[in-house]
Specification:
490 residues; alpha+beta; 3-stranded antiparallel sheet; 11 helices; elongated
Amino acid sequence: MFDNDALPSSRRALTAATVTAALAGVAFTFAMHWLEQLGTVEISGWAMFDAGELAVIAAATATGILIGWAKAPLPLVAAGAGTALLASTLLGQWTRSDPVLGFLLGVAYTSCLLLAILAVAVPRARRSHVRRGWDLAFAEAREHEVRVEQAVTREREAMAGEIHDGLGHRLTLIAVQASRLSLDETLPDRARAELQRIRENAAAASEELGETVALLSERQSGATASLSGLGIGDVIERARASGVTVHGTIAPEAADRTNDHTHAALMRALQEGLTNAAKHAPGAAVHLAIDFVGDEVVLEMRNATSPVPPSGRGGHGIVALRHRIEILGGTLDVASNEDFTVTVRLPRAAVPSTTAADFGPSRLHVLTEEAADAERRRRRVNRQTWLAPLGVLAVLVLVATGYSVYNSVASVLPPERFAAIEVGDSRSETERLLPPTDMPDSPSPALPEPPGATCHFYEASVSFAERVDVYRICFADDRVVAADTIPSDG
């Protein structure tokens, strides 16, 4: 609540600060005692107030606000308040010969002072604690993000090592075995040619595996990894060589009008689509088209669905491909009706974004949103804290003003009606001529009231600031006993 960190570090400086606070408490006591002597003040003969008490309250409150804004340390505030109480007791003995009364006055002085300090220090301390809490939460969230990133990096490196050591070793063995068999002259030429293609495919797969390992270990940019330097046509020819029938049209400038990010993503999408067709719809022709629509390149692949549901578990190729395309700001749509269709849309000059394919907000992002929402709520509460009493005050002012206006208007007795009222008239007849209410305050000094009579006062016309003629009607025994005019200067 108080800034105790601002205390002087050395013993000598702390002693000097405490003495200064004590002297300030003595000065405060004498100042309050001097203001108290102002006494009672009367304004225009109708309002009286104790100017000394008001001056003490105002001065003590202002001093407390200044101390609160200055973030005075609590020990110094305590030293000043304690000295003020002691000085008030001694001053009470000196000026009034009553130390108890002096002490009570000192309590009143310091109460105004301390309440003002608390009124400033408590909200400030609360804001400081809330701000410190948010700072700690943000620090913890940032540390959590770093730990998650480090864990992901370690996991990716472990996956890269496992893939390289396991699958890479097997692919190398396949390539070596196929190469050895392709040199066996006892085998037919066609078989030897197939074995040679198997060896080439295994070697290419090993190279692509190396690129994947590099991506997992973040040793190579995912933008430029492009299937060992192959082109779109090479991927299609490789699929045809594997027995997949491919038809379609490819924009001749597909490679020139796309940057490395887009080109690599198209290659991966094309490879994934052809692989899925060969795996899940063997023998079905694949119809593909690559064209440009505005600033986007569109890849569409379509093949007939297999009448036999695929056996075994499905892979994660489409999921991974969608993630990659969303990172580049593109979209991937899959439709499976009579035909299985994959449509990929990518910007021609795609740029990877770390947030484009975010599957969920990070803790730091959520915390930032919560902090902003809390700040908005705090401002709304602050506005309501000020507006609510101002609204109530405005309503009270309107009600009071309306009541005053109503009384001023409803208490007017026109001169012609007053002239029709005579002494001796019955009360029932007279009240039909009178307005619904009396005027709010009777004029001072008023005329002597007749014995046993009840008098009512009415204005001759509407007046808000200046007094006009006032009519007095007095009743006794249900008869008018007096009908007088009090002039405006009377």
